Amino acid sequence: MYQSILCLVALNENSRRVVKQAKALSERFDAQLRLLHVVEYVPLTGTEDAMLTAPIPIAEELESQARAFVTQLADDFALAPGSISVVNGDLTTELETHIQRDKIDLVVIGNHCRSGLAALFNHAEDTVLHRCACDMLAVSLD
């Protein structure tokens, strides 16, 4: 049913649960599994509504830390060395690029239920749900 699965990885221990689910699905369907982490744009003080990239040294350090975390996850789950992508950019743009380029037919992402003020803010899983051009599995992290 699925041939190519993309697992979106956050930089926290909850990602282990998400990757575990994605790995089980990839084994069940004999599908290729890829991990993706996007180091997103950050707002800089004084720019109010503008979203800009982080200064180069900071962006490089964030990417380096993210790459180390995702590489360790891939190693822990015995994934192929070329199965990870860590990129700087906008989550939706990078997601669409990876889905098209790698012919992804399932995206796996972690999901937290939110209430109160936290429910008012945009979150990665909401963005992915509304922009994803393929099937999506949201792994409950609560």
Please describe what this structure looks like.
With 142 residues, the protein is α/β, with parallel strands linked by helices. Helix content is 39%, strand content 21%. The protein has helices at residues 14-29, 56-76, 91-101, 124-131; strands at 4-8, 32-39, 84-88, 106-111, 135-140. It has a 5-stranded parallel sheet with strand order 3-2-1-4-5, sandwiched between helices. Helix 3 (91-101) packs across helix 4 (124-131).
Number of helices: 4
Fraction of residues in β-strands: 15-25%
Distance between the termini: 28 Å
Derived structural class? alpha/beta
Helix content: 25-40%
Short description:
With 142 residues, this protein is an alpha/beta fold.
Looking at this protein, list some descriptive labels.
single chain, alpha/beta, five-stranded parallel β-sheet, 5 strands
How would the blueprint of this fold be written?
Blueprint: E1 4-8, H1 14-29, E2 32-39, H2 56-76, E3 84-88, H3 91-101, E4 106-111, H4 124-131, E5 135-140
Parallel strand pairs: 1-2, 1-4, 2-3, 4-5
Helix pairs in contact: 3-4
